[in-house]
Design brief:
mainly alpha; 5 helices; 85% helix
């Protein structure tokens, strides 16, 4: 495959995260696992490519989540009330983005570390 090519492995991991995330919880863990397994090198290389996989997987999640959040807010609350609560809405959005970033990048990095471990320490 693309052993040692960090960008390609991170993209593969992000695709695995997206596909598995629809079926199983902890999709970024599995994406990081795939990216870390494909990446050659040390455990820190697996950790790094897993984190990159999580960052790439985070981008569409934020875009889709933002679109859904604003559409639901405008449809169910109304434009005037939705904009009137802009400070609280902004605070909620920032907290959600930070939680998503911790989830995607954290589990992606953990998966990358474990994927590198599985590649070099087991017979799989």
């Amino acid at each position: 495959m693309a052993e040692g090519d960090t960008l390609v492995n991170a993209l593969i991991g992000a695709v695995v995260s997206a596909v598995v995330g629809f079926v199983l919880p902890f999709g970024p863990l599995f994406g990081g696992l795939a990216a870390g397994y494909l990446q050659a090198g040390t455990r820190s290389d697996g950790l790094r490519v897993g984190a990159y996989s999580g960052i790439i997987g985070l981008i569409p999640a934020i875009l889709i989540g933002a679109a859904v959040f604003f559409l639901v807010g405008i449809v169910f609350i109304g434009v005037g009330e939705f904009l009137a609560a802009s400070f609280f809405t902004g605070l909620v959005v920032v907290l959600i983005v930070l939680a998503l970033a911790a989830y995607f990048v954290g589990f992606g990095a953990l998966g990358g570390y474990l994927g590198n471990y599985v590649k070099y320490e087991t017979d799989i």
